[in-house]
Specification:
homotetramer; alpha/beta; Rossmann fold; 7-stranded mixed β-sheet; 4-stranded parallel β-sheet; 11 strands
Chain lengths: 342, 342, 342, 342
């Protein structure tokens, strides 16, 4: 059995750990060999391959990034995409594919399996943790850890200067990173994309916090929006993936808070530090287990599924189902955190 | 409603985070007030109290240790223990108790509720993660993180000098810390208390690892034992809690490996660094949620239960049931890790 | 002897460690007692004091921020400023002052000593390390450490996506943080305020780096400026200290690189995370030694001096001299780093 | 010009960073090429080489260990050692040698230059910081940082359980790591090899610390010895380098403290975690500068010297002089720290 492996979408700590586990168990446990495709589906389209064997994955467990590279190429949007992938797989005698990626990458894998009989197994990857089929995805814990350490450092600056500190974290459509790092970092206000925030309420919390003689930390997800939609974003330009750049909410908010409360406010945008670098111990463990179970699914010939975490178990879930619904923050969970606001 | 709070047993990162959440939600959400008992059940026996209000828990989220102190006093082993506790609760007009601790502390809480009608809610605490009623306990992720960072550092020393490095981690009866940190740290062999290890097998893994030109890391739980029971412990003395000091397995193992393989071996005993200091982001989140749900159980008048994590939910479990069975490492899970041995 | 202590200027890890050392040695070694002034010279002007004794400094060694608070109040710009300070000192029977701060705070101390006979000893504090009288100031090593860890994390993101990552670090007038963190983090280009940069050269380095199949990291100090002065800053507004906000160079640069090289570029502004939180081991050691030697200067009655690091020794330097000249990056040192550019 | 490079002696974070700087500047700045010798002088004796060029050092800046391997082989103790080295150098057309190592490695380089005309430049390496010719050596700051983080974690355990925690750190002949990490970690007692300690005094400090309601941390260098020499070491066996294993002082001390004070005491031996893993930002900077200046000395044809840090400058020092005298902790410096004891 020869298995192709690829990684798609944005950077996420743990990708290399998944591949190491896939290859170690595939080679040593089942006698498979492997071929890596460079830059996600692009490599599969163009036949751009990377050697993927035990020496290739040695030392990769703690390494961030992906040794295969990544892209957002979608074969269904390319001329003859599916046909070209079939040709690549035939040429390299690839029997099955392990696709590691988010909604887009796994959506392609689902269609390739369902509509074209390509034997795919998926491993879910989203740093935002917004996939409904799994309790957690790897990378998320690392992002929360990095954000929490930053918030820890900002507390003393806030208090020494009696300033408001606004921390903008990742999360365009789901507020998981904001919620977890805000709770873990002791934020005085957490704003998430799932619920439009009331600027007056935020300013009231800020003011009440100062009255208690402490300086507030506001954690805001990059996708959070004020009520009334009156936020003027820094610019309306599109990034290279066609998304509007939303990175301005933190700065917008700091300016509003200064105007409404008379307190000095500063913004820190954590940005890409949240998604690079070595994975946390939790993410290495989760990524390793995902890899081991993905290659087991290959051995079992169970195609069109992805691995998922449920409690402490790794289970298999149909790909089509898994990618159907975004997992957003439950209103009850957000309300639970509200006791720490203000 | 006046609620007493106490922490019992060994140090565990997250204890203060639990208390902060209990007090914040209790005071702000429900208008309760609180009294802390110093040093676990000892404070409840002797009426030794600590002020516990919102100023007392301010800044405690990231702090290791416990602001209330801890002990292993068991009121059922003290003269008139239960009676003296009842008197303390009456004197301080305490209506309910939140007991944060491990098997022993929660076992006392269970009996006080069941046999004597004391209104107790429990919060589970075991750094070893060996409680069957909950997916994880706080403190465990911190311990695994500290151990993984240490293993990361030891890899380069092992390889620069072509030595075997034996890392002894916590875990007297359950190998969870060894299993998770060994997987996350890329250990070449993980030894746990649940399965007696075969010294010849360990030496064979060590030798095969050197043949591949890499130096091995062996992670061993402090409670791991060789087959045949032929390990001569460093000393047979009892510590102050009446446990035999088992801290010698790492050193014993290094000596055996040197003798059997002819390779130099060194031991690092991580010891108390695993259980002190600031909690990881995961543990702060878990401890905070445990605290919020414990005070909700108090509000609901649901006595004799403890909070527990199931997937991403916090649930309530009868105390008596929760402490009945040790959660040890499932043989299948240990076997899964075996692909990385040697 | 009663000694007043105050901290002025921006947040800097190690301020509390200085005060702990001053108080521990002052009380235990010399039998002095202490009074803290809140918020720098403001507290001395207004007689706003804080208790400062051994219990007050307990546990403060690892804590960021300043337990006394800080401000940028300058008594020479206040009505009757010097007179009011004299009154406060007389009222609280303060014999001598230990002033911990930067150029402004120490400049006030120098004039109070020289012109008004107030017995002052200074401890230098600048996170930017731009004071010529001392090899290093505390806080600088922490800032470099935080920035280096961020750069470490950004490398993998840069390489996985073949993007340019621009990291903006602190340093308005001196490029020390950029130089040290850029060298330690393996940056492919470091831009400092001391030398206007040539955008074409930066773009040439970026392009050559991509040719070698690696994605570049550009570290830029917030005060760096392009040749020709054609940078359009994000806004020209003044912050509350009357400084123009320069925080836009990173973003400006990323946009220029995208336009000139056709490569995607992203910016991360590290901001206040560099100056908050627990001090590094080096900074705790330096701050502690500064504190011990400052109180020795008080005991010796040597006024108008500040402590300074020379090699591994702590020496005393006249305050007036110490604050005269900004220590900027030596061109030879910057050239030395140039071998790693591109 | 072809330059040979080798690393000798124990593991030390920053070795790879030195080599990266040597090679980057040598190749790009001066057009040299390089050959690496495997395992220190052993590789030079046996002609065992490693390719050393720009691709070989890519990504090595943050990596612990040494890509060349290390040993303690001494050519002056080998049959025909010097002759065999000359043959290797001739065969590989090596014009000059950069030797990175401690007293032993540099001592060999000194004799090879002085007695046999081999063109050597040295880079000092000792994690213990005990070389008198330089303010600091790389690796030392990393070791102090690791030890300080461990002490931070141990404080909470000490206080929660009111136990004495003894932390044994590296330092056989010099107490620099103990002194710096003890000061930075807020230890209540620091014991160094330079001064025999008085057990009664240590116990008095422990007791007085408990009276102030806090639990003590004792930091002890592995080479510290009690007055009277009555310490019974764990064993008198020799390790593979012929040194007596001294690693028992921590445990011995904890037992003595328990017996003399009646307080529970525990020991943590930090061991090899102090010398492995990624170098700190400071050490990466220092190692990089050492490498740049070493290759400059080669270019200048200045043989028989090593690079050294003086203040913030890198200077050249005759090898023979540099290795002559151990830099131990100055009694005045140790006394300065004494204000924090007890």
């Amino acid at each position: 059995m020869r298995v192709g492996v690829l990684t798609g979408g944005g950077d996420c700590p743990g990708l290399n750990a998944v591949m190491r586990a896939v290859v170690r168990k595939g080679v040593q446990g089942y006698g498979y060999d492997f071929v890596g495709f460079r830059d996600g589906w692009r490599g599969a389209l163009e036949g751009d391959t990377v050697q993927l064997d035990i020496p290739a994955v040695r030392g990769m467990l703690p390494r961030g990034g992906t040794l295969l590279g990544s892209s957002r190429t979608n074969p269904f949007k390319e001329q003859n995409g599916v046909h070209r992938i079939s040709e690549t797989l035939a040429k390299h005698e690839v029997d099955a594919l392990v696709a590691i990626g988010g909604e887009d990458t796994l959506g392609v894998a689902a269609r390739l399996t369902d509509e074209h009989g390509v034997k795919c197994v998926g491993v879910p990857k989203t740093i935002d943790n917004d996939l409904s089929a799994t309790d957690y995805t790897f990378g998320f814990n690392t992002a929360v850890t990095v954000a929490t350490e930053a918030i820890d450092r900002l507390h003393t600056t806030a208090e020494s200067h009696m300033r408001v500190l606004v921390v903008e974290v990742m999360g365009r459509h789901a507020g998981w990173i904001a919620l977890h790092s805000g709770l873990a970092g002791g934020a005085n206000c957490i704003l998430i994309p799932e619920q439009r925030f009331d600027l007056d309420q935020v300013c009231a919390w800020v003011t009440s916090r100062f009255k208690a003689s402490y300086a507030p930390i506001v954690v805001v997800a990059e996708g959070a929006m004020p009520k009334g939609g009156d936020m003027v974003l820094k610019d309306g330009s599109l990034d290279s993936f066609g998304h509007v750049r939303l990175s301005g909410v933190g700065e917008w908010l700091a300016k509003q808070i200064e105007e409404h409360t008379g307190k000095e406010a500063r913004t820190t945008v954590l940005g890409h530090t949240q998604r690079g670098g070595t994975p946390s111990a939790f993410d290495r463990w989760l990524a390793t287990r995902f890899g081991l179970h993905a290659i087991d699914a290959v051995r079992d010939g169970e195609w069109g599924v992805m691995v998922a975490l449920r409690g402490t178990d790794i289970v298999r879930v149909p790909l089509a189902e898994a990618t159907r619904k975004l997992k957003t923050v439950d209103p009850a969970l957000y309300e639970e955190a509200g006791v720490f606001f203000g």
